[in-house]
Design a protein that fits this description.
Layout: E1 7-11, E2 16-21, H1 27-45, E3 49-53, H2 59-64, E4 68-70, H3 81-97, E5 102-108, H4 112-128, H5 134-148, H6 154-167, E6 178-185, E7 195-204, E8 207-211, E9 215-218, E10 225-235, E11 238-247, E12 252-262, E13 271-274, E14 292-297, E15 302-305
Parallel strand pairs: 2-5, 3-4, 3-5, 6-15
Antiparallel strand pairs: 1-2, 6-10, 7-8, 7-9, 7-11, 11-12, 13-14, 14-15
């Protein structure tokens, strides 16, 4: 196997292994390393190991390993609540089925998805832990605090918290849909020295359901912009709102911020988020952007302000 420059291999506990292949890993090196890791797993654990793939479906992974479960999602995003529950249920069922069962969490690219899964499984283990699992729980918490806390996005952390609150019955999912009427951004991010060209997209699950027009905002002339959605956009379940700056010179767009929620977890008529609670913006350098993201909610209407 490689010396670690191509992938990270973490024994999170004695029975939970995480492997993340880096962006720099070529397809040829990926196949070579995957073959070596598969041989290691088969020699040490025979048929007592299962692979949960947290990335897109991979034919090489399925061909080399007998037991692979595809439960992946896009990196740097939070999984749906349903998918998060499925991952943790598969993990728990497999690990509890036999004391020698071993689990491999596989992903390509960013390591954040392993962090989301382990952080969520900690929430489940907190509810149903036993003395023999106490050491594993400590190891998982140490792994997350040492390696994952700065990799996970605010939305990923939010979904882990929601998952934990659902497990402990602190919240119940509301089945009513919501409608977005408008999105307000205040103050304006300084993505351009003179004119900031902003537009927003709303995603239901992974599908785009709304794209606004481009708002050209002269820097220094106004400190806010309002996107009115006509007709109002209905949402139910997992959704994401993303704001982009249109870069004409590069013929592309830059992500200003993203934020993910599940409609069933929103209650009350006002939700305010600080800059550090917004994906991308939380680590951005735009000095004027994102002091507050305010979400105004009702069972029928949703007004959003930043």
């Amino acid at each position: 196997m490689a010396d670690g420059s191509e992938f990270d291999l973490d024994y999170i506990t004695e029975r939970i292994i995480g492997i993340t292949f880096h962006y720099s890993c070529t397809e040829q090196m990926y196949q070579h390393n995957l073959h070596s890791i598969t041989q290691m797993l088969q020699s040490k654990h025979a048929d007592r190991y299962m692979v949960i793939n947290l990335s897109e479906h991979n034919d090489d992974l399925s061909r080399m390993n007998y037991r692979v479960v595809d439960l992946g999602w896009l990196e740097r995003q939070a999984p749906s609540l349903h998918l998060l529950c499925s991952v943790c249920k598969n993990m728990d069922n497999w690990l509890r089925a036999h004391s020698e069962n071993v689990l491999l969490l596989h992903c390509k690219g960013s390591k954040d998805r392993v962090g989301v899964v382990i952080s969520s499984y900690i929430q489940l283990s907190n509810v149903s832990t036993s003395e023999e699992l106490a050491l594993d729980l400590y190891s998982m918490k140490k792994f997350c605090s040492d390696k994952m806390v700065n990799l996970m996005t605010p939305s990923q952390k939010r979904y882990v918290q929601v998952f934990g609150r659902l497990l402990t019955h602190q919240i119940r999912l509301n089945s009513s849909p919501l409608f977005i009427h408008c999105i307000n951004i205040h103050p304006i991010p300084d993505f351009h020295p003179t004119v900031c060209q902003l537009f927003i997209r709303v995603y239901q699950d992974t599908q785009t359901v709304y794209t606004s027009g481009v708002h050209q905002v002269a820097v220094g002339q106004t400190d806010r912009v309002c996107f009115a959605l006509e007709p109002p956009q209905m949402l139910k379940g997992d959704f994401m709102i993303a704001c982009y700056h249109k870069n004409d010179s590069m013929r592309t767009h830059e992500t200003v911020f993203g934020v993910q929620f599940h409609t069933g977890t929103l209650c009350g008529d006002q939700l305010s988020l600080q800059k550090e609670d917004l994906d991308y913006a939380n680590k951005g350098t735009q000095s004027s952007f994102g002091q507050i993201f305010a979400l105004k909610v009702s069972q029928s209407f949703l007004k959003i302000g930043i």
